[in-house]
Amino acid sequence: MATISPPRPDGITTSSKLLRRESKVMPQLQSLERQKLAEITETIWQHLTPVEQLLESQASIDEISYRPMPPKRSFTVRVRYQDKGRGEPLTYSLDLDDE
Amino acid sequence: MTIEPFWVKVEEPTLRQGDYLPGCFVPIFDPNFNENSDIQDVQVNEFDLIIVTQSCDLENKKARLVAMIPIYPISEFEKINPEFAKKGRWNEVLKGRVEGLHLLASPIEPADNQKALVVDFREIYSLPYNYLVKHAAELGSHWRLKSPYLEHFSQTSARFFMRVGLPSSIPPFK
Description:
- Chain A is of the alpha+beta class.
- Chain A contains 1 helix and 3 strands, in the order E-E-H-E.
- In chain A, strands 1-2 form a two-stranded antiparallel sheet.
- By secondary structure, chain B is α+β, with helices and mostly antiparallel strands.
- In chain B, strands 1, 2, 3, 4, 5, 6, 7 and 8 form an 8-stranded antiparallel beta sheet that branches.
- Chain B starts with 6 loop residues before the first strand and ends in a 13-residue tail after the last helix.
- The chains are: A alpha+beta, B alpha+beta.
C-alpha cells in the first residue's frame, strides 16, 4: 500500500503515522465506510502531491551551483616591468560633489 | 510575444553602468610575477564584460579602474553547466533564486529566451578606465542597458555583494 511521505527540507524524519492510500480496486467489495475513506484519502493525496513536488524542487534549488566559465580566448604576452614609483591621485574636481 | 528591448545601441566611446563590451582583455598575473625581472610573461584572458561601476563615478572620472562582470550567451553557459539545460532551471534564475546569476534579454532578439544572456557576479574584474574608453572607440558601437533593466541588474549586483552568512539560525517554523 502506498504512503504519503513528502521529504522534509530540514532533514527531520517524519512520523511513522503515515496517511495510507486506500485501494480503489473493486469498490463494490468494500464497505460504504471504506469507500468513503478511500475517497477522502484520495482527495488528500491529490492535494499533497503538488506540495511534495514543491518541496522537492525547493531542495534541488538549494543545491544549484555552477562551474565558472572559461575565457573566450587565452594567450600570453611578454611585458616589460618598469618601476615608476608611487602613483598620482586622480585629479577630478571636488566641486562636482556639491552640484 | 512582444518584449520591450533591454538595450540601446550607442555609437560613442563613453562608459556607463550597464555597458556591454565584448572582447575585453583581462591580464592574469602569475604567482611568480615580481619586480625582480623587467621582462615577464603575463596570461591574458578575453571576456565579454558588462560594467557595474556607477555611471556617476564614470562620468566624473572618479574611477581609475572600472568594475566589470562577465556576461555569456546561455547556450555557452549550458555547455559548461549542462544541468542548466534542464527544463525550469533558467526560470529559477529568472526569479532571482540562483545567487550570483542574472538574466538579460538578447540585444538582437529579446523575445527569444534561448538567446538570452547570463551575468555571473561571482567573477568581477577591474580594468583601466582609459583602456575601456579606447576599446569602446575601437568597437565603434556597443549595447547599453536601458532603465529599468539597468537598475534591476544593479540591484542584483548589490544583493549578491551584501549577502551575510550566519553561523547559525533560528530553527525553521513547522
